[in-house]
Amino acid sequence: MLINNIILIITGQQQQQLKESIMIPKVDLNQCHAEFAPSSFFRLMLCSGAYMLNKFVSEEDSSVAAEEGTMLHKCIETENWENLDLDQEIMIEKCIDVQNKIIDANPNGTVYKEKKLYVFNRDNVLMTFGTVDLVVVSEDGKEATILDWKFGRVTVSDACENWQLFLYALGVHQALGVEKVNVIIFQPRVSWTPSNSTVSDFDSILDTVESTIEKCADTTITEFCAGDGQCRYCKAKSLCHAYKNYSLAQLDEIKNFEIRKETFPAFPDIEIAGFYENLTTAKKQIDTLIKAVDKEMRKRISETGECAGYIVPEYDGKEEIQIDRIYGKVSHIGVEQEDFLGACKVQKGALEKIIKPIVKDQNPSLKALEIKNIIKGMFSSSSELSFTRTTPIPLKKVC
After folding, report:
1. Cβ distance 119 to 129 under 8 Å?
2. Domains of the chain by residue range
3. Is the dihedral of CA 154, 159, 162, 166 positive or negative?
4. Is the domain 1-234 a CATH 2.60.40 member?
5. What is the pLDDT of residues 62-76, one digit of tens each?
6. N or C: which end of the chain has fewer CB within 10 A?
7. pTM metric for this prediction
């Protein structure tokens, strides 16, 4: 099947399913997530073909990161912090601080937490919906502030270009009639400084939403446009020729670059830095493509038992043994306890987990960040007890 010069290899049955599904989408309020969810809307703006292609991909189980995000949102809502590690407690404390500052700045305002928002087109047809963490409406009802927390490690778009927040702002405008919405996004794992912007041109946002949905639903104008922003979390990468070509294109310049290690000292800073950027970009794209293909192969193996000779080997997982039992096994052959302990590795997070309640009991008023600094101070003065990274910290471009 040919759509805008992009060849899709799909079965006749899939083509029929596609024809039946390509119509103005209907939003099902019983779904957990809208078909054009605010969180993924920007990706559809960049690649409308993703909407159609994802119809042929089965729903995934939620990731560990998504489950943690849901759990941390629930912790803020319920104020129940049980079973959180120190880093998670610090994030929650920071989120609540940001929330309280917004509420305190509007002492007579109306506060909504976990506010469900709906976005309608000009014909009053529901297009999408979502839930924002906080909405505070000013006393005169003309202005609102919305706040959304993100607990991931990957930096999301700033508030001034974040379409998830723009859709939430449009939903607040349509529901409450405000003239201006201050949008704030807070990502405590990335920065303790919130990103904020102001939205007031709601007609332009509505125009973009309507045109994007139309483009997704009409195969005559659907486009496949690969890129890091739209492809990173797309579930249909393994089916997409545009993504494959994009990934392989990252290697073009590298093919023409002399990559013998002994030649590196001869290159000026700007060239070696450019080569580093090309390599890391290509690796990221290729790794993502490999992951998508690996997932598709595993799916086929689960259905038929193998895929062109590949199978999934059995693995019971990592075995955990008590440290005293290990020493008991090796001490009889002459291994000294001091040498044995020197070979042992301790996870920093696991150690913090057992120390935290003791420190907290001794001083209940301490905040999580203060407890973390106390624990850090226990080891910072001793080189034998300091923690070291097993992998180097990635380079960061600062200018």
Report:
1. yes
2. 1-234, 250-304, 323-385
3. positive
4. no
5. 677 888 888 999 888
6. C
7. 0.71
